[in-house]
Amino acid sequence: MDDGGVRAYVEERGWDWLRRLARRQSAAIVGGLLLLGSHAVALDAADDEEAAPASVQETSTRINRKVTNPVSLTWSLKLLNTVDFDDVGSHGVHPDYTLQFQPTMSLLLSPFLKLITRPEFTLVDDTAYTNGAGELRRTTGVGDTILDVVLSPKLGPWLLGLGSTFVFPTANLDQTGQGKWQAGPASVLGYKSKTWLVGAIFQQWFSIGGVADRPTVSELHLQYIANYFFGDGWSIGTSPKLRVNWRAAAGDQVTFPIGPTIAKVVKFGGVLPVKFELELLYVPVHPDHDGERFSVQFNIIPVIPAPREGPLWGSS
After folding, report:
1. At CA 74, angle to CA 71 and CA 75, rounded to 5?
2. Where are the extended beta strands (E) located within the chain?
3. Which of 5, 9, 134, 204 has the highest count of CB atoms within 10 angstroms of its CB?
4. Which tens digit of pLDDT belongs to each residue from 9-46?
């Protein structure tokens, strides 16, 4: 065999070896993914946060853990009552009241993949502001609407969600909305146990249309969560929301609140679980102009049965 024949033989054998290696590696990767999926299902089946929807037999503490989990399969209807004490320039600190409605609707797409849909409607936004003459005024209207859509794999104690977030300009007044259509990424990352849940919810919005003479939007919200669960439906923790307005002037970009949250789940009539939350926040880092100083939030969260218990595709 001449040199050309040897070279052709080696190249042919080499390609054949690479093809066999690629087939083996592909089989190993597919097998690993299948094993990971089955392992995640096994872990989650043993995890009481995902084992079943809220029922009369469940303890109040278990329901509390499920409602606190941002990627749980539990359906809930949250009413958020918030009073922010804002510094309105030379007029001092004035309270703003906001009423929001935030249902959480989850769907089990497959035995190990969930779809979490969470809209947020601002029903009442009562805001103090200064007009062009520097005079203090108040206005009350409807705010913009937020929609989060996130896919979440079932990974036992780990919480993971990836998806998109949107803002729709539904406000009827300039003072209660931004006047822009917005979109961006959303994610959830965390860990849970019988007594603890820690995590973070990330939302970033970019304006993609809307009223031409309103400012362009680039805004980050990062809610950091840490909760400890006692018996009898009680929990204590913290869940403030860090906000960054990337397009604001220096000194007006960051709002960073800190403070505790205490919660309790009560079963009305022994049938309807309702979670009550009280959150007190102090804002050490805030915008220099019209920034938030203190905040009090009282939430009422009824827990309702999911319309569908099993997966949409496949078997549980």
Report:
1. 110
2. 75-87, 93-110, 113-130, 136-141, 145-153, 158-168, 180-192, 196-210, 218-229, 234-238, 241-245, 254-258, 261-268, 272-285, 292-304
3. 204
4. 434 444 454 455 445 544 543 444 344 444 444 444 43
- Architecture in CATH of 51-304: Beta Barrel (2.40)
Using left for φ > 0, alpha for ψ between -120 and 50, and beta otherwise, residue 192 falls in beta
Using CA atoms, how far apart are residues 298 and 283, in angstroms rounded to an integer?
A: 17
Rounded-to-integer distance, Cα 222 and Cα 168, Å: 19
Query: DSSP letter at 252?
Result: S
**Which residues, at least 6 apart from 289, have a Cβ–Cβ distance to it below 8 Å?**
89, 251, 252
Length of the chain: 316
Domain ranges of the chain: 1-46, 51-304
Q: Worst-scoring range by mean pLDDT, 19-28, 175-184, 295-304?
A: 19-28
The dihedral sign for the CA sequence 299, 262, 223, 149: negative
